[in-house]
Structure formats: structure tokens, C-alpha cells
Amino acid sequence: MKKGSSGRTRIFSILHLRSSETTEKMPEDCYTGRPLFGGAIVSTFPVRFQDVSDIRQVPDHQEAFVDPTRDESLVFELLDLKQDVGDDGSAIWFLQDLAMEQDAEGFTVIEQSGVVEAQGLCYRNMAAIVTTAVGQMAISKGRQGKEAQNIVKVYLANLRLKEIGTDVLITAYEPIIIKTFALPKLNPLTPSHASRKSTSGIDLCPCSDSAGTVGAGLAVPAEQSGRMPMAEVFKMAVSSFEVNDWSLFGAA
């Protein structure tokens, strides 16, 4: 494949795995380098995350992975560079944009990083600019309405490749509370979905689709399931992000 002037590069070389460590094992959680966008990019994260494109169609600018047993997901996106968004607030901007796009409620920012120049990820000697942010919001799955919103922690990294006009987003979703049954809106003339009856005969909203696979209520902590915490999955995916073929971005 055609390479950019800097060849194979990663974000933080000090954190990258040696070739003999491509596949490792934490407590019951194996991880390995995963090819993205036809192998032009590689990132390392647990093998329990399944490629969503094996199940349904995914937009060409995205790569999405999900662990259905925990309802956790990891998404990589390639977007046109937002020229009007400053570097210092770009991760927060994209997190807020994500909340609006998903019609989220109760959006709060938990933490955000400063601006970091990733010397290990350069094109023509121009380092990528990296910022991260963590937020919490209530969002629904698929076509479910607000009455089935789950409380989710969202981790987002923005890798700004200015020389090639690209904003890379790496987003990880970790459910905190899976929606249980609740009273619907008090408007019986316009029900938004089918309801169920409680033992007292009161209509109750169906819970989130997630409850069918991972159960309702508080999500089980990853450590109790012998899994790598989502915060660590996110850090691994970001720190191991590697570009093999810059022509993916139209670079000469």
C-alpha cells in the first residue's frame, strides 16, 4: 500500500505494544490489534468487541464494534476537519454534538483533558492534536423513545489531523443504568408504544432493549465480570491508534 511521508505512526510511541505482544490477556479479556478501514488504520482493543458491520450496514466513514454481553461499544469515525472549532474545546464540542444528535437528556461533562501534540502521529512532520472528554447522558437504543433511555458514560477522543483536513473521533460507550419499567407519559390518547400492565393494572413502559441481554438496573462493573473496564479499553484504543496508509485520507 502507498505510505505517507512518515510511514507507520502511532499516537504515543511510549505506550505502543511490541510486535511480540500483539495479543495479550488481562483477566479473561484478550486483546489484539484490529484492522480498520481496510487495514489503513490499526487500533488495539479486546476481541470481545464484535464488528457491527457483520450484523448491519455501517457508514463508510465509521468502524463500529460492540460487546453485546455488556452493551458496550467502540466507534471510530473520520470526519472533515471542523475549522471553526478550537483545539482546546474540540472534544467537548464533539461530545455535545453527539448528545444533540442522539436527542440525549441530562448531558453533563465529567472531565476533559488539555491539548496534547501527539508526536507519534505525524504527517509531513505535523503532529496530530489530541483532546479527550468524558460525559454522561441519557440516550435510547435504536428506534426506542425517551421513555427507554439508558444512563451512559461516553468517552470521546478527538485526533485532529490538520495537514490532511481530518477530525478522527474515537468514542466509547459504557452503560451505567439500564432502563427499568416506568410510568408512561400521562396522555392515553397518544401512546408512543405498546405498554404492559402491572399487578395493579397500571400501564408500564417497556424497558430498554438492552435489558433483554444485560439485565435492567445498575450495570455490573467490568471487574466483577473479569473484563477490562471501559475506561481502559478507551485508553488502549486511543494510545495504540496507528496509521499504516495515509492515502486513506487522500494524502499523496
pLDDT averaged over residues: 79
The structural class is mainly beta
Q: Tell the overall outline.
A: globular
* Proportion in β-strands: 35-45%
Secondary-structure element series: EEEEEEEHEEEEEEEHEHE
**Poorly predicted parts:** 1-10, 12-26, 188-204
Describe this structure in words.
By secondary structure, the protein is mainly β. Helices cover 10% and strands 39% of the residues. It contains 3 helices and 16 strands. The strands form 3 sheets. Strands 5, 6, 7, 8, 9, 10, 11, 12 and 15 form a 9-stranded antiparallel β-sheet that branches. It has a 5-stranded antiparallel β-sheet with strand order 1-16-4-3-2. 36% of the residues are buried.
Quick structural gist:
By secondary structure, this protein is mainly beta.
Indicate the topology.
Blueprint: E1 9-10, E2 24-26, E3 29-36, E4 41-46, E5 50-51, E6 62-67, E7 72-80, H1 90-101, E8 105-112, E9 116-123, E10 126-139, E11 150-161, E12 166-178, E13 196-197, E14 203-204, H2 211-214, E15 217-218, H3 230-239, E16 242-243
Antiparallel strand pairs: 1-16, 2-3, 3-4, 4-16, 5-6, 6-7, 7-12, 8-10, 9-10, 10-11, 11-12, 12-15, 13-14
What descriptive keywords fit this protein?
five-stranded antiparallel sheet, mainly beta, 252 residues, disordered N terminus, 16 strands, nine-stranded antiparallel sheet
